[in-house]
Amino acid sequence: MLLNLALGVATMALCLALQIALLTRSLLYYAKHQSDLDGASYLGTMAILSGVMFLLMFGNLGQVAIWAALFQFLGEFKNYDAAFYHSAVNFSTLGYGDIVMSDERKLLGPIQAINGVLMVGMSTAAFMTTLRDAIKQNRHGWTSKRGEHIRQLVD
Question: Alpha-carbon torsion 68, 121, 117, 50, what sign?
Answer without folding.
Answer: negative
